[in-house]
């Protein structure tokens, strides 16, 4: 039994290292030499992922605590403009860029760097940009969803923002202010 647990731990550690390497390469491809290095501690990365989910779960039941908007894929320019306004409205904040799911990943960055290229960062993290504010229980999710209608597939983008000062900044951004 002890041998199988040890093997499982080694395999899990290897999966984390492989995913970390992929995450680091994707960030470097996006940002070049100045790309942040992903955390090397799988427990800390998992804890940040859990904190992200917990902060969302607290906000989700209250309509006032979560700002949500969707755009069809053909309106991607409007989406990016809204995210840029959000970035200007919230200012520069320290955030964690997260790769969610099994073997969660995390890299520290500034919100303005990430939100300057939201679709690029979403591509790096599997078409779901997940940001966790480093100082307050707040976050941003930008996810691409697909809808299948027989042989046809359509895509839409969904932006969700929770926690202050993020929801105030997002509300203004979605009204065209910023």
Keywords:
178 residues; 6-stranded antiparallel beta sheet; 26% strand; alpha+beta
Can you put this structure into words, describing what you see?
- With 178 residues, the chain is α+β, with helices and mostly antiparallel strands.
- The chain has helices spanning 2-31, 42-59, 76-90, 111-116, 118-124, 166-174, and strands at residues 66-72, 94-99, 105-110, 128-133, 139-149, 152-162.
- Strands 1-6-5-4-2-3 form a six-stranded antiparallel β-sheet, sandwiched between helices.
- Strand 5 and strand 6 form a beta hairpin.
- It starts with a helix and ends with a helix.
**Main sheet: which strands, in order across?**
1-6-5-4-2-3
Strand/helix succession: HHEHEEHHEEEH
**How far apart are the first and last residues' alpha carbons, in Å?**
59 Å
- Using only C-alpha atoms, the radius of gyration works out to 17 Å
Low-confidence stretches: none
Number of helices: 6
Strand content: 25-35%
User: Could you report the average pLDDT, rounded to the nearest whole number?
Assistant: 93
Structural class: alpha+beta
Describe the sheet with the most strands. Answer: 6 strands, antiparallel
State the shape. globular
Domains, number: 1
Number-wise, the strands total 6
The portion of residues assigned to helices is: 40-55%
